[in-house]
Amino acid sequence: MSAPGQLISRNPADLQDQVFATPAADAATFVAACRDARAAQPAWAATPAPRRGRAIQQIGRIVEANKESLARLVTREIGKPYPEALGEVQEIVDTCDFFLGEGRRLYGQTVPSEMPDKQLFTFRVPVGVAAIVTAGNFPVAVPSWYLVPALLCGNAVVWKPADYTPALGQALGDLFQAGGLPDGVLSVVQADGPTTFAGIEQALEEGLIDKVGFTGSSAVGREIGALCGRHLQSPCLELGGKNPMVVMDDADLDLAVEGALFGGFGTAGQRCTSLGTAIVHERVHDDFLARLTAAVEAAPIGDPTQDVLYGPMIHQRFLDRFVDEHLDLVRDHHTVGGSTGVGRITSANPRAGFVGDPEAGLFVHPTIVSGVRIDDELANTETFGPLVGVARFGDFDEAIALANGHGYGLSSAIYTRDAVHALRFRERVSAGMVSVNNSTSGAEAHLPFGGNGRSGNGSRQSGIWVLDQFTRWQSMNWDYAGKLQKAQMDVDDVDADLDFRLRW
Ligand code: UN1
Fold first, then answer.
1. Which residues line ligand 1 (CB under 6 A)?
2. Domain that holds residue 421
3. Which atom of ligand 1 is nearest to the CA of 272?
4. Under a CB-based contact definition with an 8 Å cutoff, are residues 7 and 25 in contact?
5. What residues act catalytically?
6. Is the pTM of this model over 0.85?
7. Are the CB atoms for 130 and 236 separated by under 8 Å?
8. 17 in a domain, yes or no?
9. Residue 7 domain-assigned?
10. Which of 30, 133, 427, 479 qualifies as a FRET site for 254, CA 20 to 30 Å off?
11. Domains: count for the chain
């Protein structure tokens, strides 16, 4: 728990270990940072883009040189197993690698005019000041998906990290600053959610923000979308998911089980791309369920500095919501498996083979819930914890209904050996991301990342596609005819014989 006025983080695998404490900013501090950003942005936008790209290059090198210490801090502050934490830091480096060259592109187009002696052009223009609010499950990689392209495009950024990852907020901010960003171009404001919302509201009112980027829950995303909409802005929203995995009767079941294990239980199911429901063909359902149950029962869980499938819940609030709300969605027609208990792992509710001391941190049992049906609340609620639903289907239409019925549309997967199934699934699934014979998690840093429906407003991050979030297209026409040429009116037509018909 945080004292009033302080943001305090504790190691969720060892609650005795206080990681960091920092004063909590108020809304006025957030607005002041936006004002500083507004003042700093024009000079940054006027800095040649290749030089901005050079700053991104340096940031990538500095992060790479600090890879182990930043990954150790990820493990300590949110309990992500160390190899995954290293992968998370690598994702920042990959993002910098991708965008450092964009400083030498940021291409616009030359476009022909419908009139002579006239040329048309397009330019990418930075949006201005971006306020970025991120979650703590990917406390450094996901922020970099916003910060790197926003800065490269010539925007100033005010970043609010998760209030339970203040050390990582400060550390990532310091690494970016070391890359040579001018004052005011990037500010880190450590504040809680309601304060940040109030700060964004006020800054929008004062015209200090041009773009909001938000990664978090669909409920908060909806509020941010409504707020931005009132200011005629469209935010970049990356929200929740109920990511389906369809297992066809021709699937390689071992591969599918491996994908379900990583996608469903990696990061203790606290990724927005985590597997929600495995939707399994009735001919292989029992076999798949038996193999998945055996794999989950055998998986090492516990101390994230050891070789484990997953560590603790990242914060008390996630543990409470998982135990009090999400596990509550299990009904009589469901069957529960995967562990020696359900809920929080304690010495009274032990997990066989637990690695370390369960009482030291916020650990929960993995839970497989089979017998899930399309109308179950469990089939339609993001459970954000180590819980995977299993549903059975007979024909493909049923599988698609289960895959799309919840209204989320972030990630999805199909396991099959038949290209026709894979292509039909791609066409009909509502998700923004589709994996074939790969898990719902583990997007690469240069493909568009984002969702539809309850998962977001259609915005995409990563790769060249995120440039549309942080720049606006400006078109220019340049007439050198020396006379006013009116579009659509002063355009020569082509003489054609429209009555011409073949006489064959
Ligand atoms: C998230 O959970 O917000 O694809 C992002 C993945 C990671 C990113 C997840 N590379 O699972």
1. 137-138, 142, 215, 271-273, 441-443
2. 243-443
3. 2
4. no
5. 272
6. yes
7. no
8. no
9. no
10. 427
11. 2
